[in-house]
Amino acid sequence: MSSEPSAGGSDPRRPGARLVTAAQVLLTLAGVLYLGVVVEAAAGWPLDPARSYLSELAALDQATSPLFRSTDVAAGTLVVVGLALLGSAYRLARHEGEPAATIVQKVTFWAFVVFGLATVADALLPLDCALSVGDCAAREEAGELSLAHQAHTFSSVASGVSSFVASAGVVWLAHARRRTPLGISARLAGALGPLLGVVTGTIGLFGSPLPVGTGIVQRVQIVAFSVVLVLAVQVLTLRQPHRGAPETDVPQDRTARSPASHSEP
User: Which residues does the annotated region (Disordered) include (predicted)?
Assistant: First the structure.
């Protein structure tokens, strides 16, 4: 679709530039907070990382539950607020006559929004117990656990599916700068996360205990998506080239072409 830039994020005089910068800061903080592996290491690896999901550290029977749930709420909230700012920047740019966002930008934007909301829901609907230890898995199978524990499955699925769609969108959009450091890192992280997510999700369908190494794969997946979050604003605001136009390795001004609004000014 459109290849023309809208308001640039690098020039403070252009519409929405400060909002784009603020969104970048918030999404970067979200990516750092979502990187739970660092917190897990600081806590001394309370669960076997090779056989447990990282989300088990937020279970109510774990001493790390308040910390992990707090970081998830903060990360999800920062994602939603950051994207709201990016959406406001887009609307300002549209009022100035900038072109509408592409369909891929819109879908990717809203996938990130759903991810942020689902991450908050994950924290507010924690597991009753860590499935990889004790009799928790057996109790779950017997239906003895709370509704919140059961609902956690649905919020986790929403988080996983939305992160998959967002990552796929990032890979597509970053193609416009595939020979630059931004394009290479965004496409690598964006492709790695969904691939590993499919692997761990498929294994998880067979219940606990998890095969050795599943937890490690899931943690690498989370690291990859944390990188995607950090790069999200830069990729969402990339100038998309005309079909058939030559690609340039010169970095372009970031734009406020977020897909948060309607296509018409």
Answer: 243-265
